[in-house]
Amino acid sequence: MSLACFETTPFVSNPLETKDDLRAFCTALLDPLAAHTSPHGARIHLGYTGTHYDEAAAQLEGFSRPVWGLASLLGGGGTYAGAERWVRGLDAGTDPNSEEFWGPMRDRDQRMVECSALGFAIAVARPQLWDPLGAEAQERVGQWLGGMNDKAMPNTNWLWFRVFANLGLLRAGSRHYDAERMRKDMDHLDTFYIGGGWSRDGPEGVVQLDYYSSSFAIQYAQLVYSKLAQDTDPERCEEYRSRARQFALDFVHYFDEEGRAIPFGRSLTYRFAMSSFWGALAFADVELPAPLTWGVVKGLQLRNIRWWARQPGAYASDGTFTIGFCYPNHNMTENYNSPGSPYWAFKSFIALSLPETHPFWAAAEEPYPTAALGSAPKILKQPLHIATRAGGHTYVLSSGQQCSYPVKQSAAKYGKFAYSSAFGYSVPSGSLTLEEHAADSALALSADGGETWKLRRDTRAPRFEAGGVLRAEWYPWPDVRVETWLVPPAPDTPLWHVRVHRVRTARALRSAEGAWALYGQREDGRALEPESEGGGAFGVREADGIARAVSRAGVSGIAGLETVSWGGAAGRAGKAIRTDPNTNLIVPRAVLPTLVGEHDARPDADIWLVTAVFGLPSKAGAGAPEQGWEAQWEKRPVVPKEILELIKA
After folding, report:
1. What range does the domain containing 151 cover?
2. What domain of life is recorded for the organism (predicted)?
């Protein structure tokens, strides 16, 4: 049997171009949940993996998160026969006498998170999901949702979940609505705003601007609020629409022509929730800033959903979501990811709530606005990113972000030098070998002869410099200082970006610097072999100062540009490291071109590592990189003059 038969999904026949298509996709994802739903409808049990919170809350998560899509489908004039499961579930889940009771609210309770979907559902699909409950059940639901109004919450986007609960209670006319609590939450959430359309996710002083600042929570919530609270809070609603217009001009740079979004940060098992901001723009009737049009916005949203609908590893055999990114992968998840967590993706079905006459649906879909946005790298000030589409993929160079609290794999999720829509990023599977660390787009350092390794996590003093270069410092040990410059592609070397590291160390070090992680198999599915031995067009190349891999996914390579006269590490060896299985988010079997070196302690002198990184993903369906890439490989990029002057000083 051909492997190709497993590289498909049940949804490939759906073109996902119209509202009816999107409704059919939503329905096709809702249907498999019936077999996993409890007798009274309040809990959906999708698997046996654990979370830091209790099992009842995990099964509530399975119940509530699909409601983001169900409510939009119903509120937009659609029907779904299985909706009665959620009506019965609301009744049973909030009934203390029911065996399916979700349990009372406590401080900082996961149940609070799930209230956001329920409040949204009541607000946009009241006739279908609230009115059928009857007065007694409505009182219980209102009391349960309102139970969070006097509880402590984390100082993060969580506050929006209480806002949404109160919005639903307000729309339902429930006596448990707390106007003063909602006003205080809104006022505090507005202190997160940092300008340019961006809001941080939580405490001041930490830059964490991942998808929670956009589609997963804050921007999405602001847009939905701006529609639902227009009559009661018009000034704030207009401010949120203004922020969204500014934000959209940055956020568009996180998507590519094929519909992929750049994997960055945490909670990526939420998958196509990454694009829900675009549907929320339409929900809020935002006046779009040029060069965005409704045809462009429609394309950004639907291409992303189409791409995800065709990722076979995202779905179990019964059509439910797996935990992971492009395939089942618990290694990249957080301690709050239950089997129901991926259904946060249903936020992207918000466009179903719109009539077909809305310009989002009435407009013809337009391609990614490549020409209008231009080809020059784009500095994204607030997230400390430099975005580029050079080399056939969208990626960002990154310095300065980190999570505000310890989160699993945080060095990989926030501390790497670059994040790509095509290549993704990798997370470590262990703490010993380089294969376990999977240090793509990173500099790994060891002070014990390779026994253990450290990668950048706590990034300090990030700033943009002349020429559009991103500079920052990091300290893997108190007596080791690393200063890193990230240089975007130049017009004459579009497939390369440059990293420069100045290392001052009081201890001997080993270094390993990785390029992009790449699908690591030959045409026949076996592991890539050296180019001179494997035959065919695919293979790996290892030599002094360079490493390269070529496969059906494209080309990834790395080259050392430093010289001994700079105090550099001439002679770094090129290695094509086969990273541990299931470390990369995009492919479970990856190879990582890497430069490895050894460096003596030099507490009073600089060690310079100057590195060029090459990347060219294959186009969709091509099965091989574009011809002519070899000439680009041979043409090395130039280190900017300002950095050269520092090196030679």
Report:
1. 3-372
2. Eukaryota
